[in-house]
Amino acid sequence: MKKIKRPEDLRSYRWFGVDDMRSFGHRSRMRGVGYDAGDWDGKPVIGIINTWSDINPCHTHLRARAESVKRGVLQAGGFPLELPAISLAETFMKPTTMLYRNMLAMETEELLRCQPIDGAILLGGCDKTTPALIMGATSMGIPMIYVPAGPMLRGNWRGEFLGSGSDVWKYWTEKRAGNINEQEWNEIEGGIARSFGTCMVMGTAATMMAIAEALGLSLPGASSIPAPDSNHPRMCEVAGRRIVDMVWEDLTPDKILTAAAFDNAIKVHMAMGGSTNAIIHVVAMARRAGVPVDMERFDQLSRQVPVLANVRPSGKYLMEDFFYAGGLRALMQNLRELLDLSCLTVTGKTVGENIEGAKVYLEEVIHSLNDPVYAEGATAVLKGNLAPNGCVIKPAAADPRFLKHRGKAIAFEDYNHMMREIDRDDLDVTSDHILVLKNAGPKGGPGMPEWGMLPIPKRLLGQGVRDMIRISDGRMSGTSYGACILHVAPESFVGGPLALVKTGDEIEIDVDKRSIHLHVSDAELAKRKAAWKAPAPKYPRGYGAMFSEHIGQADQGCDFDFLQGNAKIPEPEIH
Ligand code: FES
Questions:
Q1: Which residue minimizes the CA distance to atom 1 of ligand 1?
Q2: How far, in Å, from the CA of 207 to the mean position of ligand 1?
Q3: What is the pLDDT of residues 235-253, one digit of tens each?
Q4: Where are the alpha helices (DSSP H) in 36-115?
Q5: If you measure from the C-alpha of residue 56 to the centroid of ligand 1, how many angstroms do you get, rounded to a whole number?
Q6: What is the pTM of this model?
Q7: If both were cysteines, with which of 166, 407, 415, 441 could 432 make a disulfide (CB 3.0 to 4.6 Å apart)?
């Protein structure tokens, strides 16, 4: 460890170390709960941001894990303090956790700023939690380690492995088609979630935990450890020890979060076959770090990097298998020649040093560059008159016949309209039709709910159809699959071209050419635009109103306008 800071340089010294009336108050109140000078004198204070909550099964173990972190902090001579933060439980929060990602980002930043914290451990994992914690801690700028919650064990039903989300969609579709009975459905409900931890397919949680590690913000291998595995608390303890050293080394996130680090993360995302949601989050995180990543960069890198992880929903296996196959270090080893190995990480070592000696143990789960699961990357960005600022598709998870397709639109004005129509027996629909959902975007949802995997109309289910093109300005769960075109920007709620689509219009997709075109003349579109009326805002007051006023579009990462950038905020005055 190269010690750069002296005890009097610590932020916390201003609260505990000086001789004035306010620091008397800080010390006396700490003594009042049983701590004493030996706890804080000359020691880095480590804030453990904990997103544990009774209602978040993905984070059930984080209370215990905070204790493991504390043990590590104490061993290394630090003073750990646990700071609870809002828990974004993907399964329970409505209308969508995305409405609250920026709230947790703000909370993280301000919890660290307004209190005597020198370094941070970020405990989270469920979908939006990871980007939120990283966005906030990046903006705060003190040393931090992101500790991933880890995936749950794989599901089990009648000898079959079940994957979170992906198999819910799959068997729900079969139930709607009449192929699954109540007894079987009930058994699946009891077998699909066998432990605490995050979803165990390559959904948004697994994708974002891997991205955090690839960025250099987690200990090597941390993101692949299943939540109930005993490696997990041991990893937490090491993180607790390491963050204390990072404070003395003054290893701040700006030294880690470079343009090259973000390229590494995007390449890992592609090789993992990661969730489309990652595009929004990585753009937002990068902008907080002052790195101008955009959707184009995703598209460029997606053409260079094949999918190597054979994990659902694009592949066959689950995150538990991925861990046994060698985990993220092994995947990055296989990707070695495409990565910038010189990037610095929280270990104080480079990416290259961190993955040294990593091996793939199950080649069926983690493929090599010579034998990829899918030749091109996980995500393609399309542009055209229907999405002037872009939209995304996950080609690996779609029926290949839809990657070049022209068909007639069936347009739904909003989610409720879609639900009223989709299962009508007289719906005029074939698998060549294109389902279009409006008002599911950042302002329209609001919060860009995961409605983008529109259900296949019941009429088609009976004919055996399981995929068709669906277009929306919403997102889809990372556990979802199919020919779903998402994140259309600008969104329909603000008058983007998606708002102008009518049933019967023809839409053409060409994923190879990265194009999406609405075959309606400019003159007709101008006429429709003139007749278009902006919908009324959905929230008359409160957080929702603030959200609607300040939220950015999908291609900009959906950050609030006033949170963007990396301008320095002064330390709080203590008087
Ligand atoms: Fe928490 Fe999927 S519900 S990660």
A1: 126
A2: 11
A3: 999 999 999 999 999 999 9
A4: 37-40, 62-75, 98-113
A5: 8
A6: 0.96
A7: 407
